[in-house]
Specification:
Layout: E1 3-9, H1 14-30, E2 34-40, E3 58-62, H2 75-84, H3 87-100, E4 103-111, H4 118-123, E5 128-132, H5 136-152, E6 165-166, E7 175-176, H6 191-202, E8 207-210, H7 218-223, E9 231-234, H8 252-260, E10 267-271, H9 280-293, E11 296-300, H10 326-329, E12 334-337, H11 342-347, E13 351-356, H12 360-368, E14 373-375, H13 382-392, E15 396-398, H14 413-424, H15 429-443, H16 450-465, H17 468-471
Parallel strand pairs: 1-2, 1-4, 2-3, 4-5, 5-8, 8-9, 10-11, 10-13, 11-12, 13-14, 14-15
Antiparallel strand pairs: 6-7
Helix pairs in contact: 2-6, 5-6, 9-14
């Protein structure tokens, strides 16, 4: 039986890679004639380890490392140039794939930051599709800003640190400038130029797979149904719920054992992602808030990365950064840790609230496990995710919406404590809405559910889009 092959080119960070792997596995499970090859790009400043798959129909091809001199190139543009430099490697790898295997190439599925690879798909005469790991609302935000910039002369930088608001079709409420991704409003980084370039290319693909579901983002998805946007397929929540308590970390058993001893829904879990860290002054404010609130807590406290790195690490001596005596005074109710097995923790019955950096994967995980969120965004598009969850969807309470690691701002212990009390209020409306959305999120992925149906439509359209010469190559 001839295989139908899709080439996946994800952005090489763990959040993008994991969701790309999971959607690839879903596709191959739905039809045994599908196979997927995922090309792994090696970043010069980080290494992605431990990526594997339990599917015989999904395989990884790691591309050779490419050295690109950053020089005086702004960080946003350097990222784009670095990914663009992989075009020859991808071209050669696809040649090898099609030469050595009896497959028909159905197309490329490229990440939102890898749109340069659309040109390679064009060379092979096959269509491109976009995999968009964030929300549908953020997709609409990028498309709307690109339109306003290109056709109405909008200066995006005017929104930096501004109280001005912008009406965006994919949001029910006007979006404040302070919720805009910092990369988009930082002139020096070149981030706006980079994002606008990729967003223009979004309009050239055959379809866009989005890690969301209709019932969660009905307003945003409806706003994307216009003729100028490729067809959008809401296929989420795409999660790897098997990334549980092992993760290769020895501390997992101690963490889960501590949770086993706590009452149901009593623990606040604080975790800020693989790139989330705080300075000494902010750590003190969080410590005072936790101590004053009296709530049980599990705090994943990570050390800022060294120069030239982006991923946080564990402290060698965590007591050095905490207020004197804090660990002793809170020993009965709290546990401060480094790395956290986030999915396993959220799945535990003792966890009643989640203080989160609002990465989209983390928000989907909180919905899947029915855990209310208090928002504390740090970087990327997390501020706009926090805004959506609090203001548009009513599925989170606010500690901060506009916090940004690049701004010199300390969130006070009083603000944090108020957020914790709202989060852990058992009568909070957010808690009730979250439980309802949890039930829906489980239904959409099974046969007949909205995301299951949407993925089926994508498969049908993808097969219909296979070029005739690919369909007939074995004759």
């Amino acid at each position: 039986m001839e295989q139908t092959e899709l080439v996946f080119i994800p952005f090489p960070t763990i959040g993008h890679l994991v969701s790309a792997l999971e959607i690839a596995k879903l596709l191959t499970q739905r039809n045994p004639r599908f196979s997927v090859t995922i090309f792994i790009i090696k970043f010069p400043f980080e290494t992605i380890d431990g990526m594997d798959t339990d599917s015989d129909s999904v395989r990884f091809v790691t591309l050779p490392r490419v050295e690109v001199s950053s020089g005086t190139t702004p960080s946003g543009l350097f990222l784009s140039e670095f990914l663009k430099a992989h075009i020859p490697l991808v071209r050669d790898a696809v040649h090898e794939l099609t030469r050595s295997n009896p497959v028909r190439l159905a197309g490329f599925v490229v990440d939102m930051f890898c749109t340069h690879m659309i040109d390679v798909a064009d060379e092979f005469g096959v269509p491109s599709y976009l995999f968009f790991p964030p929300s549908a609302a953020f997709l609409g935000f990028l498309l709307h800003l690109q339109f306003l910039h290109d056709y109405e002369g909008l200066d995006i930088n005017e929104f930096k640190d501004s109280d001005a608001e912008l009406e965006v079709p994919s949001f029910a409420n006007s979006v404040p400038g302070k919720a805009f991704p910092s990369l988009m409003i930082d002139k020096e980084s070149g981030g706006a130029e980079m994002l606008l370039h990729h967003t223009r290319r979004f309009r050239h693909v055959k379809g866009i797979l989005v890690n969301t579901f209709i019932e969660l983002e009905s307003h945003a998805i409806q706003s994307l149904s216009g003729s100028t946007v490729p067809v959008v397929y809401p296929v989420g929540p795409i999660l790897n719920t098997q990334r549980g308590s092992d993760g290769g970390q020895q501390d997992a058993s101690a963490i889960m054992g501590w949770l086993d001893d706590q009452p149901p829904s009593s623990v606040v879990f604080l975790c800020f992602g693989s790139m989330g860290s705080f300075g000494a002054d902010q750590i003190k404010e969080i410590s005072h808030a936790l101590e004053n609130s009296g709530h049980r807590f599990l705090w994943s406290l990570r050390q800022p990365p060294p120069q030239g790195k982006v991923i946080t690490s564990d402290y060698k001596n965590i007591e050095e950064v905490l207020p004197e005596g804090f660990l002793h005074r809170t020993a009965r109710i709290g546990k401060v840790i480094g790395w956290a097995p986030q999915i396993a923790v959220l799945a535990h019955s003792a966890v009643g609230g989640f203080v989160s950096h609002c990465g989209w994967n983390s928000l989907l995980e909180s919905i899947w496990y029915g855990v209310p969120v208090a928002t504390w965004p740090i970087y990327a598009e997390q501020q706009i995710n926090a805004f959506q969850m609090v203001k548009d969807l009513g599925l989170a309470v606010e500690i901060k919406i506009d916090y940004n690691k690049d701004r010199d701002h300390i969130v006070s212990a009083h603000e944090i404590e108020n957020g914790l009390r709202n989060l852990m209020n058992i009568n909070n409306e957010v808690r009730q809405k979250k439980k309802e959305m949890q039930k829906i999120s489980r239904r959409v992925m099974i046969d007949g559910g909205s995301s299951h149906v949407s993925l089926g439509h994508f498969i049908e359209d993808m097969v219909a889009n296979i070029p005739y010469k690919q369909q007939r190559r074995d004759t």
